[in-house]
Amino acid sequence: MHRRVGFLIAIVVTSIVAVCGFIHAYRQYIANSPAMDPDHDLYPVRGIDISAHNGEIDFDRVKSAGYDFAIIKATEGTDFKDAMFVDNVRRARNAGLKVGAYHFFRFDTDGELQAINLLHSLRNRSLDFPIVIDIEQTGNPEGHDPAAIAERLRAMLAYLEREGADIMLYSNKDDYNRYLKGNFRDYPLWLCSFTLPEEELDWTLWQYSHRGNVDGVKGKVDLNTIKSTFYRSL
Q1: Number of domain units in the chain
Q2: Within this chain, do residues 131 and 191 fall inside the same structural domain, yes or no?
Q3: Active site residues
Q4: What is the span of the domain harbouring residue 16?
């Protein structure tokens, strides 16, 4: 009996080690594989999105590297304000980049209070892009009812619209299907996808990599492209 238990334990331990080894190898593969680079002839306009986590950025070098816009984190939830937002907006605009701002939407806090936090941070600053609301599971607590999340999001959007804001929604494909599809069709979509998006996803911006290397930015940075017709309308 003891031998059988020991044998089973050995199998379990070996399996766990194998799975952990696979996960580590996969993460290394992802970390070291080249970032996707969409066809420049089809997607000529490029930009980055950043937050304080990216550190101090030399936006003049970003502009010289061929990038056209920067979308910058402003707020999260009901009380968090990105410490570098104001400075990033000022320096990006001075470098000649078009500028946008985004808010990370929290699933577990009031929508109107999130809108107030965002508007307080923007303080009527001039932006080239619609205000972006980032809706994704990553960074949010698990287990919240999608219907309740949608209600909080509607409350936030309604408040922003009463204040005259234009709005764009950001999400990845899984969370778009889970939280947005069929409910928020009237808003331009900024889609995160590391493969060419399906034709039925009517995206306006496309975030195609989290692992870009851009002159002027230390470390990896998110890379984006935008439909040229929309960009020309800004």
Answers
A1: 2
A2: yes
A3: 49, 134, 136
A4: 1-33
pLDDT tens, N- to C-terminus, the chain (234 residues): 555 655 555 564 454 544 444 444 434 434 444 578 999 999 999 999 999 999 999 999 999 999 999 999 999 999 999 999 999 999 999 999 999 999 999 999 999 999 999 999 999 799 999 999 999 999 999 988 999 999 999 999 999 999 999 999 999 999 999 999 989 999 999 999 999 998 788 999 999 999 999 999 999 999 999 999 999 999
Class of residue 33 by CB neighbours under 10 A (exposed 0-12, middle 13-18, buried 19+): exposed
CATH of the domain at 105: 3.20.20.80
Give the burial class of 75: count Cβ atoms within 10 A of its Cβ; 0-12 exposed, 13-18 middle, 19 or more buried.
buried
Q: What are the DSSP E strand ranges found in the chain? A: 46-50, 69-76, 80-81, 98-104, 131-134, 167-172, 189-192, 203-212, 221-226
pTM of the model: 0.85
Same structural domain, 8 and 45: no
Shared-domain flag, residues 53 and 152: yes
CB 116 within 8 A of CB 159: yes
